[in-house]
């Protein structure tokens, strides 16, 4: 390798590397693992194929929305999902794994995103908010020509490449997120607030691939739902959460100030995975959600080299779509808990942008040496975890201009990796 080629090598920022790794992960598990046994993650490929779409444009759209001109991509298997929204949003909602709306009655016209282009994939998960795409009902009926359309397999609707008329279908879960943000802005009395899902609240999952339910036993009310074996479930968690650390690496890059944990299954998964890191509230697996909501639970991330402690408030909430009555009853208490974090200074309002102030740590997800999907609206707020040379309290040599940006990436990754390494070491038995 020549000196010029070596000089051209780049260490990717964590947030960019994860996009490169996560997008093809299911295909790699299905293709490159041992041929004499099925990999646990093949469950997601074996559960069926779903109507999918691709963008008509050749690369990332120029506008910050997921509602774009699309074409039919046929029936395809699921693609692993990234965290949705701004990576430095101060509130993060956590689930076990993504839902597949197309499985449910009345939503068979849902279409899954399928992007061969990395920039389109990154753009989608940066700008996805409260809606997912579905085919316009009238157009969907015409495409069916009276045929049945089972959710997880069956004939394709049209030739691949056919233009699809689509619309954004707001998801009940994501609308609940927005309702909490609206309630927080009202409780805090923030004039001019523009709090929104995707900007002030990101959402992600402990496992990257989607399924209609996270179950190991058949649901008698929904007998057609895919069911994973207990060995598959254990293997999936081990591969995605424990071994590859996709969720944890996104979490430790984002470092949200508040985590919203929805529902009993996610409650138990989060508490089990993070049991040794709660410094207040002492949550227990199976504990009543109302009892958890009634007290302040704190998760510790760790300590920066300068001594600054990093932590998050964890708020446990009834599942907004699975238990809408429970969520409605708890909504005021959840908003009160969020407002309490404003009073404590954990969450802060930035009057200039109309959004919440960003969390500590650098980010180049939208604009970096590999790609650009748009400007960072919060660049002026971002404070790296690692100090640059010659910052107060350091005595390192000055970097030249050509290497400064790359050196900043290396420093930030090292700081994130050190935090996560210390955290996972503390998780060991």
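^ structure tokens above, recovered residues below v
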């Amino acid at each position: 390798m020549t000196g010029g080629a070596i000089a051209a090598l780049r260490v990717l920022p964590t947030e960019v590397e994860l996009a490169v790794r996560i997008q093809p992960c299911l295909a790699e598990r299905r293709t490159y693992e041992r041929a004499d046994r099925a990999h646990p993650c093949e469950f997601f490929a074996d559960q069926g194929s779903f109507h999918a779409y691709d963008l008509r444009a050749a690369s990332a759209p120029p506008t910050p929305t997921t509602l774009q001109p699309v074409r039919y991509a046929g029936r395809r298997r699921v693609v692993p999902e990234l965290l949705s929204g701004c990576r430095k949003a101060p509130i993060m909602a956590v689930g076990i794994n993504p839902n597949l709306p197309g499985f449910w009655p009345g939503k068979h016209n849902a279409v899954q995103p399928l992007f061969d282009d990395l920039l389109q994939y990154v753009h989608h998960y940066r700008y996805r908010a409260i809606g997912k795409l579905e085919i316009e009902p009238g157009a969907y009926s015409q495409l069916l020509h009276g045929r049945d359309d089972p959710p997880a397999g069956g004939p394709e609707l049209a030739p691949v490449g056919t233009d699809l008329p689509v619309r954004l279908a707001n998801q009940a879960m994501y609308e609940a997120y927005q309702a909490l943000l609206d309630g927080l802005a009202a409780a805090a009395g923030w004039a001019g607030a523009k709090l929104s899902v995707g900007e002030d609240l990101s959402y992600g999952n402990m496992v990257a691939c989607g399924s209609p339910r996270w179950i190991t036993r058949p649901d008698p009310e929904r007998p057609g739902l895919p069911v994973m074996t207990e060995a598959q479930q254990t293997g999936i968690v081990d591969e995605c959460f424990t071994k590859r650390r996709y969720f944890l690496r996104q979490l430790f890059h984002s470092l949200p100030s508040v985590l919203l944990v929805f529902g009993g299954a996610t409650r138990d998964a989060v508490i089990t995975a993070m049991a040794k890191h709660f410094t207040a509230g002492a949550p227990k697996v199976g504990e009543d959600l109302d009892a958890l909501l009634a007290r302040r639970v704190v998760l510790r991330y760790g300590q920066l080299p300068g001594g600054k402690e990093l932590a998050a408030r964890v708020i446990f909430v009834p599942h907004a779509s699975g238990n809408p009555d429970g969520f409605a009853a708890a909504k005021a208490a959840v908003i009160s808990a969020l407002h309490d974090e404003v009073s404590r200074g954990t969450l802060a309002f930035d009057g200039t942008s109309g959004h919440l102030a960003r969390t500590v740590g650098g980010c180049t997800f939208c604009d970096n040496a590999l790609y650009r999907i748009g400007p960072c609206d919060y660049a002026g707020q971002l404070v790296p975890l690692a100090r640059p040379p010659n910052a107060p309290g350091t005595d390192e040599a000055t970097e030249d201009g050509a290497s400064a940006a790359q050196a900043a990436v290396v420093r930030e990754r090292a700081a994130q990796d050190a935090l996560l390494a210390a955290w996972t070491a503390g998780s060991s038995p």
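The CA atoms of residues 59 and 196 lie 26 Å apart.
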